[in-house]
Write a structure and sequence with these properties.
Layout: H1 4-15, E1 32-40, H2 44-48, E2 56-65, E3 74-80, H3 89-100, E4 104-109, H4 128-142, E5 148-158, H5 160-167, H6 171-174, E6 186-190, E7 197-200, E8 211-216, H7 224-236, E9 241-246, E10 260-267, E11 273-276, E12 287-290, H8 299-310, E13 312-317, H9 321-337, H10 359-372
Parallel strand pairs: 3-4, 3-5, 5-6, 6-8, 7-11, 8-9
Antiparallel strand pairs: 1-2, 2-4, 10-13, 11-12
C-alpha cells in the first residue's frame, strides 16, 4: 500500500498538464513538480560532438521529493525511468525508501513531453542520448538547490534507464552537457541494457565515479553474464564497477508486474558488437568490431546492418520481492558508502597497467554464473 504522499505524487505525474515556466535554478528551494529544459539529440554520435543541427530543445517535467526530516544538506538521486516510462514503482518502492533514508529523489519524465508512452517494442522512437541529456540537465539543476549536497548527487535507473546511468559516468558524455567539474557522485544501474551492444566512451575519460550494477540471474532480456563480462573488462582498465546478481530474478524484478512475456519486446541479447565513439566532429563511426570474433565493422551503414541483424524480440518481466527488498538495501548501502568523487587519471584500456581487481568478488560471480548455466564453462 502506497502512502498518501507517494500516491499523490504519482497521480500528479500522470495528470499534470499546466506547468510553471521552466527553471534553470532551484535556489529558491523549490520542491514538487519541476519544469526544466533539456535536448533531444538524434543519436549518441551527434550528442557527444555537440552537433545541434538536428538537436531539438524540450521542456521536461520532473518530480522532486525531499525527505520529511533533514539535518543540513542531503544527498539526492536522479532516477531515469525504463522503457515503460514513469511508473508507480519509482515512487512506492524507490522514492519512498530513499526519502525515508534521508535522500532526496528527482524523477524526470523523458517520454510524455516528447509524445511517447513506451519504447518497449520500438526503441528507435527516441535515442537513449535523450535520457542521458535529461539526467545531466537534472544534475545541473539539483546542484543549485540549497538543501541538496551537490557533491552527493547520484544517478539511478533500470533497463533503458540503466543504460543512461552507465553512460553518464564517462567524461565524453558528461561534457556534452556539463562543462564544469560537476558530476554524479555515483551510479546505480538495474538490469542495464546495452551490455551486448556496447557503445563505449571510456577512451580518454578520467577515472569514473563508482557504479553499482544490480542484475537478475533469470533475466532473458539483458543477460547478467554479458554485463559481468563487460564490467570486468572495464574494471581492468580503471573503472570502478561492482555488481550483485539476484537468484531467480527476471527483468524488472523491482516492479510489481506478475510474470509476463513480452513477445515484441526488443532485446539485444544475441548481439556482440561494440563501437568506441569519439567526440571529434567528422570523426565518423569510430573503431567498431564484433568483440567475440574480432571482425571489424566499417562505417555507419555496416554498423546499422549488424545492429539490426542481431537485435531480436521477446523477453520476460516479473517481480521478485526478495530481490526488490535486497536491491533497496544494496542501493542504500552503496549511497552511504560513496564519498565525493576525486579527480584522478583514468588509464585507457590500450595502456597496460598493474591493476588489482577484487578477484574474490569476480570469482564469486563466475561461480554463480556457472550455476546459472548448469555448470558449463
Amino acid at each position: 500500500m502506497k502512502s498518501a504522499r507517494y500516491l499523490l505524487a504519482w497521480m500528479a505525474v500522470v495528470h499534470s498538464t499546466v506547468m510553471a515556466a521552466p527553471l534553470d535554478t532551484l535556489s529558491g528551494g523549490q520542491t514538487g513538480k519541476i519544469e526544466y529544459q533539456s535536448i533531444t539529440p538524434p543519436d549518441r554520435w551527434q550528442f557527444v560532438r555537440k552537433n545541434l543541427d538536428n538537436t531539438k530543445t524540450v521542456t521536461l517535467q520532473g518530480d522532486l521529493l525531499m525527505p520529511s526530516k533533514m539535518d543540513g544538506k542531503v544527498p539526492a538521486v536522479v532516477i531515469s525511468h525504463d522503457s515503460g516510462g514513469v511508473t508507480p514503482k519509482l515512487y512506492d518502492v524507490w522514492a519512498k525508501s530513499l526519502n525515508a533514508a534521508g535522500v532526496a529523489v528527482f524523477i524526470p519524465d523523458s517520454f510524455k513531453p516528447r509524445g511517447i508512452d513506451s519504447t518497449t517494442n520500438h526503441q528507435g522512437q527516441v535515442d537513449v542520448s535523450a535520457n542521458v541529456a535529461d539526467a545531466l540537465n537534472a544534475l545541473k539543476l539539483l546542484a543549485t538547490h540549497p538543501q541538496i549536497d551537490a557533491s552527493r548527487i547520484f544517478h539511478m535507473g533500470g533497463s533503458r534507464g540503466g543504460t543512461a546511468v552507465f553512460e553518464t559516468q564517462w567524461d565524453m558524455v558528461r561534457k556534452a552537457v556539463i562543462t564544469s567539474d560537476l558530476k554524479f557522485a555515483g551510479h546505480v544501474a538495474l538490469y542495464q541494457g546495452n551490455c551486448n551492444t556496447r557503445f563505449r566512451f571510456d577512451r580518454g575519460s578520467s577515472k569514473p565515479a563508482p557504479m553499482l550494477a544490480l542484475l537478475g540471474a533469470a533475466d532473458d532480456g539483458t543477460p547478467a553474464d554479458a554485463c559481468v563480462a563487460y564490467y570486468t573488462e572495464l574494471n581492468r582498465g580503471g573503472a570502478n564497477i561492482r555488481w550483485q546478481i539476484y537468484p531467480d530474478a527476471h527483468h524488472n524484478f523491482d516492479g510489481s508486474t506478475q510474470r509476463t512475456y513480452f513477445p515484441q519486446g526488443v532485446t539485444a541479447k544475441n548481439c556482440s558488437i561494440e563501437v568506441f565513439l569519439t567526440d571529434v566532429k567528422g570523426g565518423g563511426l569510430g573503431e567498431a568490431r564484433n568483440y567475440k570474433t574480432g571482425q571489424p565493422i566499417q562505417g555507419f551503414g555496416e554498423w546499422q546492418r549488424e545492429f539490426a541483424a542481431c537485435n531480436s524480440r521477446g523477453f520476460t518481466v516479473a517481480e521478485n520481492r526478495a530481490a526488490r527488498e535486497q536491491a533497496v538495501k544494496d542501493v542504500l548501502t552503496f549511497i552511504q558508502s560513496v564519498q565525493p568523487v576525486t579527480q584522478t587519471p583514468f588509464v585507457s584500456h590500450q595502456v597496460k597497467q598493474a591493476v588489482s581487481p577484487d578477484m574474490a568478488h569476480e570469482q564469486r560471480t563466475l561461480d554463480l554464473l556457472r550455476e546459472i548455466a548448469g555448470g558449463k564453462d
